[in-house]
Amino acid sequence: MNKQRLIQLIHIARNDLQMDEDTYRQMLQGLTGKASTKGMDITQLNRVLESMKKKGFRIKPAGKAKSGIPLDSHPQSKKIRALWLEMADAGVIRDRSEKALTLWVKRETGISALRWLNAEQASSVIEKLKKWQRRATGAKR
Questions:
Q1: What is the DSSP letter of 139?
Q2: Which of 15, 19, 36, 82 could in theory staple to 24 by disulfide, Cβ–Cβ 3.0 to 4.6 A?
Q3: Given pLDDT bands bounded at 50, 70 and 90, which one contains residue 139?
Q4: Which residues of 67-96 are buried (b: 16+ CB within 10 A; e: fewer)?
Q5: What is the pLDDT of residue 131?
């Protein structure tokens, strides 16, 4: 498994295990002496992933493009999706699909899935959507 894939899985595991920022950073520091996955080598990343598996994380096999992966149910993700659909209903957005939302989020943040946004990034996405909505509809919210 390459370094980028290990980092991806660690971030997915963090979300699945619902680890807050401090707990996550302390775990990384305790296992590797580093507080970020960015500077870790493959051995250290594997050590972190194995630790997360012991805490209950299970790697789910990737399916086909329409694999039936459930939508992220985090409240901020639900808010982002609700704003997107509201804007689509108002005619501001032409493509209301989850794929279109994901592509827009990736352009804005560089993150390719709602479930991988941290709280700060998700808040930023929400604010961008609200500003876009206000500009497009002329509403005062």
A1: -
A2: 19
A3: low
A4: eeeeebebebbebbbebbeebbeeeebeee
A5: 95
Burial label for 102, CB within 10 Å (0-12, 13-18, 19+), is middle
Nearest to 114 by CA among 87, 75, 58: 75
- Of the chain, the end-to-end C-alpha distance in Å amounts to 47
Q: How far is it between the farthest Cα atoms of the chain?
A: 53
Q: How many Cβ atoms from other residues are within 10 Å of residue 17's Cβ?
A: 14
Tokens of 9: 């899985």
* 111 dihedral zone (left: phi>0; alpha: psi -120 to 50; beta): beta
pLDDT tens for 53-81 read 998 888 876 543 344 556 677 888 889 99
Q: Which two tokens stand for residue 134?
A: 């206000």
Angle between the 75-89 and 98-109 helix axes, to the nearest 10 degrees?
Answer: 110
Closest CA relative to residue 115, chosen from 65, 80, 66: 80
